[in-house]
User: Fold these one by one.
Assistant:
Number 1:
Amino acid sequence: MAITITKNPHPLSAEKRAEQLVEPGFGRYFTDHMVSAEWTAEKGWGELALVPYGPLSLDPASMVLHYGQEIFEGLKAYRQPDHSIALFRPESNAARFARSAARMALPELPAEMFLESIEALVKADQEWVPTKDGESLYLRPMMIATEVGLGVRPSNKALYLLLASPAGAYFKGGVKAVTVWISTEYVRAAPGGTGEAKCGGNYAASLVAQQEAAAKGCDQVVWLDAVERSYVEEMGGMNLYFVMGKGKKARILTPKLTGALLPGITRDSLLTVAAELGYKVEEGSITVKEWRKGVESGEITEVFACGTAAVITPVGHVKSAKHEWSHNKGESGPITLELREALLGLQHGLKPDTQGWMRKINV
Ligand SMILES: Cc1ncc(COP(=O)(O)O)c(C=O)c1O
């Protein structure tokens, strides 16, 4: 497949880049290049183009700016012990990007184009892939509706973009458990809605609940189902796992995908990784009351959230309008840490890749 390459004539100097890589944070700095491709209903997808990173010029009547026809993805490139670079399950992100596109009446980007754009950008900006423990290059594929006009209908023009941003280790100085707020006032997604799609609108609608959680002294929101407001769905931008029991006899449960949850690739990977470590893993359902009672009785021993950005985050304390409880004295539990280590080890090339999930970049 063809990709035209226009190198940035003014890349950041090696010294400035090194300065940014000391503490990259998350989504703060961007690499020297980006990739784009245009689609029209008439001609389909045009060629991929790797170009210098920079602002877009958009007509203010572009449909995305009015009706939010937009989707995105998030995945990471990891430095391996031999200094090569590898992606973790990028085909799964390509597939989810296509499903999100279908839901938002945007064109599906062929998986080969998705993968090729990522390989080209990581190759061009390979010096930006950090080398320190737990760090990575975060990749942000996105697509917007670019037809000009205010009619409410699917756009006949779209723009695919791929950005890259160095990401620091999420937790410095040890994994920190979060405090969560169970939102009964706001819902993230309803049956038939867009919960399964990674579209910007879902995140815009979540911000007020995140503000509410912060006002209650919490770090993150836990979303419940829209109909009964009792089944636990997910946490902020991460899926949830519940550990029942202790040691190798423990059972691990994650809320099943109902159409309202974002089907996380980390969630899916953990179903396999936990089973490989000898745990019984299941996709099921759990209500807030079952969660609270399970903690009270001692059956639920640990709870954690998982996603690409923070890998695995322990949930230490839980608050709702009426109740408050903690797991494992507010600290990370042993199974949470074991799974975190297993997954990070796999992504950073320190553990055998039994499932063929890592895709090396030919630099
Ligand atoms: C709402 C939501 N849930 C879960 C996830 C976790 O998905 P993944 O593991 O693919 O990063 C994300 C992040 O993409 C998300 O935004």
Number 2:
Amino acid sequence: MMTDRAQDRELWGRELGAAAKLVDSATDVTLVAHVHPDADALGSALALGLALRRRGAAVWVSFGAPAQTPDSLRGLDVADLIVPPDQVPERPELLVAVDTGSRSRLGCLSGRVDTASAVLVIDHHATNERFGTHHLVDPGAEATVVLVLELLDALEVGLDEPMARCLYAGLVTDTSCFRRAAPGTHVLAARLLAAGADPNAIARELLDTHPFGWLAMLGAVLGRARLEPAAARGLGLVHTTVLLADVADLRDEEVGSVVDLVRTASEAEVAAVLKETGPDRWSVSLRARQRLDVSAAAAELGGGGHRLAAGFAAEGTAEDVLGALRAALHRAPTV
Ligand SMILES: [Mn+2]
């Protein structure tokens, strides 16, 4: 499975072996997802957590923010492994950070990187800073759950339905419903279905369920969208803002869905959604169709991500942020 992915198979084999040994011998394991976890992050943490608990380890799963588990992801935590950050051990024997490119993305739990006896980083972000003592980092993997499954195979863990559900949740979301999945990844998905994952139920809960207020929010936000054909090196930029007033009682899931609609504009290579997080504070999501590397633009602006999906945080007026973004996209490499 790895032949089409890892650049150095021998090194990968060594890292996988070391990670498996580390996890195999741990009696207490703290698994941490990035702040505002998505299905890949929480699915990775919970699948590995379920497997390790079944093997007798004490397991905690947590994330720095928000205080509550996102609604659409609650169904993944069948064994109540998720605890609030203040219940995570002060000095974990083994800390596993999943789907997290940098320690700052662990939020209030980032200090555990220093207090843990060992830190395993499992991730697929190209911008990963390798901040652990052990690493399973492969930017060629479509999702972190792919790497978790590889680790589970190395540990000879048999998949059950709850684990398969968690892994499938990360796979279906991070591959945009398998549009960006390599042949081998479809084979992995087949294994997860055989282990009991229900693709229709998982996708409906994760992707196709929103409160009624979502429709009014979309009306306002999409009505403000603007197209700049000359931007993004002449390939086109479409952008809009999501203001705090637009999303009053809505969940992260509703806000996160906006970029997937904005990016459908055929005239634009790049889509940007500026989400207001406070007065003159923004969290910006970037998507590219195929020709521009938006992770380079995001990195230049202090963020990170993948070639076709990236983001950054910014301060200033929306127009200030757009100005900086236009300049960064003008310098972004084509692929
Ligand atoms: Mn991911």
Number 3:
Amino acid sequence: MQKSVSIIGGGLAGLAGAIYLARNGFKVKLFEKNSKTGGKANEIRLGPYRFDTGPSLLTMPFVLQDLLGDSLHELGLQPVEPVCRYFFADGSSLDTSSDRKKMLENLYRFSPSSADEYLKFINHSKRIYQRTADVFLFSPIHEIKKLIRLKYLPTLLKFYQIDPFRTVHQSVSAFFTDHRLIQLFDRYATYNGSNPFQAPATLNIIPFVEYELKSCYIKNGMYRLVELLVKLAQNLDVEICTSHSVEKILYNTNGVTGIVANGRHFKSNYVLSNMDVVQTWQRLIDGFDNYQKKLDRLEPSLSGLVFLWGIEGRFDRLKHHNIFFSSNYEKEFREIFAEGIFPSEPTVYIAITSKKDPNHAPENGENWFVLVNMPFINKNLNMDKAIQQIRIHTISILGRHGIKIKDKIKMEKILTPNDFDNLYNSNKGSIYGLSSNSKSSAFKRPPNRDRRIKNLYFAGGSTHPGGGIPLVLLSGKIAAQLITEKKENR
Ligand SMILES: Cc1cc2nc3c(=O)[nH]c(=O)nc-3n(C[C@H](O)[C@H](O)[C@H](O)COP(=O)(O)OP(=O)(O)OC[C@H]3O[C@@H](n4cnc5c(N)ncnc54)[C@H](O)[C@@H]3O)c2cc1C
């Protein structure tokens, strides 16, 4: 008889899990609390302006090939060039490129010794990728029996070669002499919501992934990915129930029996939760108090403060992706992670999709997605003050680089850590799940297959392999594989 799966949450990981499971012959019902699927990868319109509300850059596009097959071409993936324009506190700027020749030329002009340094660094980054990807990205790391297979043993035995004992910053500082490039490459720790001054240098895998495995934009906006996933899922007979908030996971001594959503009981053989793992245990599962407390001690990732600005005028100095660095990165991360306060002088990220898709803004306008790193929700965080001061800071830092926007903001919507919590049940408003601020973080992430309740599985940024589009899609695949193997072994 066909086995059934209830999926909690229609974020990217839930949708990916649904597609893989339906392909493997399961009857899948997906419950999403909001009226739209996509979770953090969402889209809104403010008058004539259109915005993505979450991810703006797609790395590891090959992950989509496996999930989407021939439908991949429908996304019209576009390379991003330059990958990003970086503005530094001393007034200088640098365009990065995934064309290695161009990158080396730009670096040489910026700081002559850095071209050679970059070559050494990117080769180091590539080595980490080659050593870790199979075990840490594409496999269920908590399934010990699989890990000790011969294929993975070399990686496990050469653990020291993946640079786990230094921090990202220590390792980057050993490669580069120019403090601006140290800041630039330190930034990659934030791609999974971590602190470069604490996170293990294994995260230096990310520059290789971004520059050498290519980074993309999705034609017409990142939300097109969500729409395509929904279409594929529905073609495979996945039933998607939006505006259905799951209130309970039901289980007995034999394992899960189903879920309760909007007060109704839905039976299923398996439950796959795409809701944040910590939140799933705290809000949906009775019992297990000690485990819930243990999960609560895991450090959430960075959160963010987002301004969606409908801007009047066009700004040629800005590219699709732009970073305005603070003058003291260490202080910025100390404030965020150690003190839990909003950064007094934050680094500002601006993405403008109307550079590629002019119809995302009126003729003489641009749609700015402005993101500043923030602490996860805690008692020291004063949100009203943060919004006020960070808006002033952003306008002022842009002004220092000759970009005057004081009277140019015609529309505004703000997303705070509280919004990420309320909208998507993300743990303390974190936007990437759990931080990787310690050497053992990868192993401490809650597993895709739960050991306490039989037939309960997890996918999404707070479980293995972590946050960001490609990783959460992979988590959906890993969870679906584990469920399928379970069914076949019965
Ligand atoms: C501002 C911002 C910028 C980002 N930038 C990038 C980027 O440039 N590149 C990148 O790769 N990544 C980026 N990310 C991270 C990326 O968006 C996330 O890692 C990814 O979208 C998370 O997907 P998910 O499926 O794990 O979780 P979510 O998107 O959180 O999905 C979980 C879903 O579960 C639903 N849900 C929760 N509780 C329940 C319940 N009880 N019942 C029913 N449904 C429920 C939620 O509503 C949500 O739809 C960014 C994120 C943010 C917020």
Number 4:
Amino acid sequence: MDILVTGVAGFIGFHAAKRLLANGHTVIGVDSLNDYYSLELKQARLAHLKSEPDFKFHHLDISEKRALKSALGESKVTHILHLAAQAGVRYSLENPHSYIQSNVMGHLNILEFARHSGNVQHLAYASSSSVYGEREARTGFKESDPVREPASLYAATKLSGEMLSESYARLYGIPQTGLRFFTVYGPWGRPDMAYWIFTQKILEGEPITLYAPDLMRRDFTYVDDIVDVLPKILTKAPMGHAIYNLGNSAPNTLYDLVNSVETACGQKAETIIKPQQAGDVRSTFADISAAKRDFGFAPKTKLEDGIAQFVDWYREWKRENP
Ligand SMILES: NC(=O)c1ccc[n+]([C@@H]2O[C@H](COP(=O)([O-])OP(=O)(O)OC[C@H]3O[C@@H](n4cnc5c(N)ncnc54)[C@H](O)[C@@H]3O)[C@@H](O)[C@H]2O)c1
């Protein structure tokens, strides 16, 4: 398969592209290499991918209407894994326009590319657990639950992406799969996320800030568990438009995360407690029975094991990039 991976220099895009290349596919990667976080990290991920003969890269912004067409006009993309987005809940309060630009305009441009290319058999794209908004999580969130109350602009743009996809599946028969990821973490991860910030601060002997830690629970999902299932999802196009939760289905508290990072770092954290931040939801919890039924999705990594893997990688990254 010739697979277009958008956001290929990003955390999940990098891991997904590596796996697809290892499985013998051709990967055409695109990324705008924006400076939301360390460009050095994005370039280092790309350098790994560029050592693979079946990897091609185009530096472009998917929100620019003609960029994809002029870069990929001659290519024979059969499948798309669309991961490029302005990520992060908190930053959407600071820079809302970049979310509309990348996550709504960019999503539309990917749909238009799929519509006009004539070769695309399946478009799988990243949505987010944030579409579920603020709600009790005594049991897992189901894909069929109503999702009409996004708690952040980030969530609103991810929900918009799902709506745009639904309309294009109906209008033009493009088979699509929306993937609601739940707090994905692991080596080569994101410097804006709590597990990275806690690791950095604890190793540097600085205090960490916990926002409403008694209320917060997250369904932390190890990146390899996601990457194991992505090729299966891509090769199985649905009739129309399908949506799946991809989470660990075993939520942990914020204190569990801190404990795991402390253990992996071999150091205790000094903590500062603050109230819940605007845009944050208290709990996430994925019901993954649909992904299990259709793709055998079975995440197996416990938080403490995944965090130990991340901290090992982080120490090496910092040794090489002080
Ligand atoms: N990591 C998580 O916990 C998580 C959870 C839910 C959903 N998601 C979604 O999964 C996808 C991947 O997330 P990630 O954690 O790898 O984030 P990331 O920020 O590491 O990767 C996104 C990549 O997209 C690129 N990008 C952004 N705007 C672009 C544009 N307009 N044109 C081209 N490239 C652009 C960025 O440069 C970046 O390399 C995103 O859609 C994100 O919203 C991630």
